[in-house]
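Why this split exists: single-chain examples teach little about how molecules sit against one another. For that reason, every record in the complexes split bundles all components of an assembly together and asks for one structure covering all of them. Below is a record exactly as it appears in the raw files.
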Amino acid sequence: AQKVTQAQTEISVVEKEDVTLDCVYETRDTTYYLFWYKQPPSGELVFLIRRNSFDEQNEISGRYSWNFQKSTSSFNFTITASQVVDSAVYFCALSVRGPGGSYIPTFGRGTSLIVHP
Amino acid sequence: NAGVTQTPKFRILKIGQSMTLQCAQDMNHNYMYWYRQDPGMGLKLIYYSVGAGITDKGEVPNGYNVSRSTTEDFPLRLELAAPSQTSVYFCASSYSIATGDGNQPQHFGDGTRLSIL
């Protein structure tokens, strides 16, 4: 069975601090996909990044960076110089192929990030 | 670009009533999904579909039914509403293929907030 653990339920920081959101996943599959989504207070879910299991290259996009380490089954997300607009719930998700060949996603419980001015 | 459209946005039902949550996408995605989001619990997969005429159960299918007669539409039916079905429901779609780098990210609708009293 697949599992995604986001151990941090809520993180509170002051603007301009750096913050890392942890994501640990479990799967026996060798081919899988990892995602991060953002859910701002308005409620919609917005895709941030996707990684497949064969691509361990870290990625930086502006103030956002992602660290994918297969050795520790982690896909952590760092926001540098946080801003109030980063306040949201962030979800990590894992997708693997089920018995019928379909991709089945599993979401973590989310981490609520609060950035204070 | 409409993307994924969910209707209605809000609804209050009485126990035992039935209703259909509508979901439509205009991106020609083959996969469609229904999730429910309860506070602090992340997203739980209710049903998913990999193409017209094909549906399958997710993690929490009890009390719900779906159909997929077209690529664009994926309605979710609640037959006998129960208080435990009070939640925010999200529909999503994605494009995934069996070969190569196949599992693309999901696009989400804005959600339907459903209360059952």
